[in-house]
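Q: I have two molecules that I believe assemble together. Could you output structure tokens for the complex as a whole instead of separate predictions?
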Amino acid sequence: MTALLTVDHVNKSFQGVRTLTDVTFDLEPGRILGLIGPNGAGKTTMFNVISGIYSADSGRVLLDGRDITNRSPARIAGYGVGRTFQVARTFNDMTVAENLRVALVNAGLSGREERRRITDMLDRVGLAGVRDLVVSALPDGQKKLLEAARAMMTSPRLLILDEPFGGVSAEVIDLLIHIIRDLVREGVGCLVISHDIVSLPRLCEEVLVLVEGKVMTRGAISEIRNDARIVDAYLGA
Amino acid sequence: MFTADVLIQLTIDGVSRGAMYGLMGAGLALIFGILGIINMAHGELFMLGAYAMYFATMVLGVPAPIALLISTALMFCVGVAMERGLIAPLRARLGSRWLVDGYVLTIGIMVVLQNLALILFGPREFGIAAFWPGRQEFGDVVISNERVLILAGALFTTGALALFLKKTNLGRAIRATAEHPAAAQVLGINIERIYAITFGIGAALAGAIGSLLLSTYPAYPTVGGEVLLKAFVVVIIGGLGSVWGAMLAGPLLGLIEAYATAFAPGGWQNTITSLLVLAVLVLRPQGLFSRQVTRP
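A: Yes, here they are, computed for all two components at once.
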């Protein structure tokens, strides 16, 4: 099967400090890959390179075989990459519904179709009751949920989620896992950064381990758990 | 002796004048909220709008409402061209370190535009007595038609701007970019386009106000300085980067000026305004109507 996402020998430095070194991996459609590693391993930098927020110094990022390396984030979003951020970047001065509507600005839908899609998504993520609430009034967990819903509104083929379970209640984690699994069943590929070693195995079976900007290994969580090198990397031994 | 009629008169004068300050401040705040720079050339955009209005109405004989539309559209194009031609290349070259240079660039644009106006039109003032001569009387309250026109223009423009930002996709994209540019980008919003359009809207607002106030502020090369100062005051009181704050702070400033002129000894008007600005900066630096400073 053709890979949905291919990251091919990507390098990235900031002022001479290497944050990604020769990172290579791929992801097939309808699969979930966890991205784990200690703080400063380059996980979020990797997400930023994929989504176009950072440019890669060298290497390529392909989506469905199309080279999207160093394209603008807006164009990459148009190609079908949706993402969330480590700290939810919701538009706090807008209502919940308006946040979702922003994701449809380029969709060219009629007002009625926009409203229908927003209502469907709010029902799906359980936020229908706070539809017209200004987002600044929401608890952090609901903001995370809203941000994920907003990313899904762009109808992505690849969804990249940065710490979706951070600061989120057990109920919301259950809901998020359910929603992501549904999306993946529809053929969407999903990359997830998470430090939540309890929730991540419930979402995906396979993880990629980044340490000091390099891919240390890739494999089933059950195998990785017992890998002494990874335990050392996390404990700084 | 200040009767109720005088107070009503002062209130109407203050609100109509202040609404214009509010719109100038809103343009400045919009540009700051999106691009992160204080546009020092904002007063010169007002000046260009005033010249455009004068020449359209007095030289070409275009009816005032159409001249207002032409001037506003022209200034939108000037704003977009300034952003694309001067500001965007600087931003692209310097990345995140462009803000101080951008600020200096707008000072340069201000100086160039002032001197260009001086070369082209000389130091003389181009003004008109009134677009709509005459006055309206409501009992003892007398309002000049020009004041009514200015108030109506300010209210219409304020409403149109609020509706645009609140109800249109482009308006929502601008608000999203102001709050979290990266989050807006990953939703498919082309923020370079948003930067240009926002600068254009700010310029169009300044141009529209310069046109509407031609009878109060005639066009001359340095007319923008005084207006820019008012816009700064409004933006500080309302909250840096807060468009809504500026639109509320404008009428507040207008009212304070109007009452200060009537009730305080001569020369105290600017002192009272300055004290208010100082008080806001010390006690509530985020502004009276803003929860927090918006940063790009």
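A: One point stands out. The longest helix of chain B spans residues 4-35.
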